[in-house]
Amino acid sequence: MRVTSIQSDWVGRVIGGQFSLVQWLGGTGHSGVFLTELAGAPSQKAAIKLMPDDAGAEARIACATDASRANAHLVRVVQGGRCEIDGSPFVYFVTEYADEVLSEILPVRPLTPEEVKEMLVPVLDTLSDLHALGLVHGHLRPSNILVVNDQLKLSADSVQPANSTSAETAQLSIHDAPERTDGTVAPASDMWSLGVTIVEALTQETPEWSRAANADPLIPGSIPQPFAGIAAACLRVDPARRATVNDVRRQLGLAVPVAAPPTRPEPATQVEPGSAGKPGVVVLAVVAVLFAVVIALFWWHSRTPQPAPQSSDEPSSQSHAQTASATAPLQPSAAPAPSPSARASAPVQGGGVAVKGVVAHRAMPDVLPAAYDSIRGTVNVRVRLSVSPAGEVTDANFESEGPSKYFAKVAMEAARKWKFVPARADGQPVASNWILQFAFTRGNTDINAEQTSP
Question: Model-level pTM?
Fold first, then answer.
């Protein structure tokens, strides 16, 4: 197969039958970027990157597109595909157009320490989200740190599963970690690239290093702390000794996400590989289930609820049940939502009686399959809701974001869409507060709702 290098004089050609190459924006030995336009009135600027095709092109296009939609600090991939130019196959990515690129600023002037810290905050957030999802950026360097509509973003076209292998070993630069020689791309590889980028941003030059030598790069003495220490911690030849994203956060004095303590034990169905032959695990699970059933039956038969009188301004229990069943998704073995007259009640200040609200509509988080596949154990997120007398969510705040910004984001988006049959006091609907506990496990989301007041 004949391979054609990417040429700046391809301006005027049309890629994929719809994207004209309007202007050469720059490139490396492995890729080239052109200005193009998106169809519409008026037309909109976009960038199109061309790279040689390879066996994993389809997976790379899908991974980059999904990741860019899930993370606000990744340049959005509008479209990706394959094309042929002069008999050679290429992959193309059409993305948002960048107003500025760090690699165009550094030849003119270095960044100040304050600017470097400002740059690192979204970069670290993005790497943290990617690594939590089992992904890596794979190509972090000044040419892929961009400003789009006054927001700093990273390119998305190189995003790929962590610990995958890459065939791009012929075009390696100092930004590529030592292990890239073997084709390995891991989260630690991103941290090496970050260290090189920090040095380059502050000095306009990359650190001195020989790939053939088994020694850490030299950090220029002109780099101030804490950046010199951060760069040194990232630029260790041994990947196991490199700084992590949270290590860098600590050195910068930034908050480090802390995983919320589990509120319940791991589901008994989550058995580690190889434990299927351990009868003790199965027996304990069965005993726990039977014990829970016995307790539930005892509690149910011991209850003697007395129906409260229904006030003239309160909707009938039938209408409430119809509302709940019409809006709430079906849940396995779920009992019908209780009517207002059967809901738990408690005295309130002033001698009245408060009747608790019930959930009328549960909105489930929209989680990418790749995100579910990345989970080990349980990711917990707690969201505190303020609910109006009409049963609408008026405010939502994190009580605990958990260890992943991605899962915190999708939990918050879902929480704001919940609806409730309102709580009542003295027969009148009143505002209430709720806590939603999201428990994300591999392939599943469990949500527990608890009214905290009135």
Answer: 0.57
